[in-house]
What does this fold into?
Amino acid sequence: MNALLSFAYSLLAKDCTIACYAVGFDPMMGFYHQPRFGRPALALDLMEPFRPLIAESAVLSAINNRMVRPKDFLAAGPAVSLTVAGRKGLLHAYELRMDAMVTHPIFDYRVSYRRLLEIQARLLGRFLQNEISTYPVFVTR
It folds into this structure.
């Protein structure tokens, strides 16, 4: 389970880093995560509310739909990693989740999770420029 979650979190961090760059942010300068060389602190801040909605949901979907099976893991001592087939299965589940449509609670229109990451980054920018009074964290019903 940890191998799947770690891989899914790294995919989500990559997509949040892309969203930060898309709106003109430096993803290395965050608020909650400490800046460290090579660590996209702002992207990690942005991804926090999406961890269960995207990454953990993709992992559960991959397991429940048998996109990843026990044979897709390699154990070497205490370490466990995914085979190529296991990575492909999780990537497929992750991409399906990123393409899933949700209704944004503020704008009341449907967007994919991929687009939602950029919208939330843009809302963060508006908050930082005092155009809105609070940052509206995305939550589901």
Q: What stands out?
A: The first helix runs from residue 2 to 22. The CA atoms of residues 7 and 131 lie 36 Å apart. The chain is about 50% helix and 10% strand.
